[in-house]
Design a protein that fits this description.
globular, alpha+beta, 5-stranded mixed beta barrel, two-stranded parallel sheet, 31% helix, disordered N terminus, OB fold (Dihydrolipoamide Acetyltransferase, E2P)
Length: 277
Amino acid sequence: MRRGSVLRGVLACFMMLLGVLGSFGMVYSASDLLPSDQVAAMLRTKEVMIGYEDGSMRWDNTVTRAEAVKILLAAIGEVAPSLKRSPAAFLDVSPSHWAFGHITMAAEIGLVRGRPGNVFDPEQGVTMAEFMVMVSRVYGGLGSRAGVPDPRVRIEPSWAAPEIVGWSDLVELVTDKSLSVNLDYPASRGEVGVLTGRMMERLGLAYDLTGVVERLSDDGGKLLLEVDDEGAPIEVPLSGNVLWFADGEPANSQSLLGRAVRIVLDISGKASVIVKL
């Protein structure tokens, strides 16, 4: 069998698996919605959630409403422009606020609508309900379609339910066997990380390259990636701290030779996270 046929078969099987399972490929921690190492590595590489100066992610910390907006805009690849001369979208977000550009853009694209009195409360903690509503608006804004809501699911607060309940991949993360949940509590960085990672995966924003690893260079600084069955393999430079994952667990480079993978590139264009399909 030709190598290209093998590649085509592997990738076709992978896409079928995604469609059947609806898992979107990411591996998530089951406890308290903490991102797996794989998800965390992707978020850091994409500079969506980069952590603190000591290298920790502090998943238990809460997230402000301004931070939540910045995270989601970074996740969808929107860089807030300089909007100092733009009219303020909310009375309590002046041009001097660090997130003025992010919040103004988020309001312009319909990601946020503020609170009564035309205020945003940027430094107040974002609730889980508020963040999930923002994620659902990203889904809809980028062309994804909600499914038929499960009539058994009960979500509080009631104002958030209509925007959340149709997105089964979000609902399944926060509901238990009772299918009832109250989301009116401060969202943690861990919860925001899991939801953002799943959103990026669903919308095809998490990875930059897909193909089969043909071989590594002798010095370990590059790999050859076969991306289709027609053209020649492409050369992909590796970052000095590239991370390899298989089935959600750390792996070594040799174990992924000849395997179909997805790759996250850092801002310099080097492979920083490589995940076996």
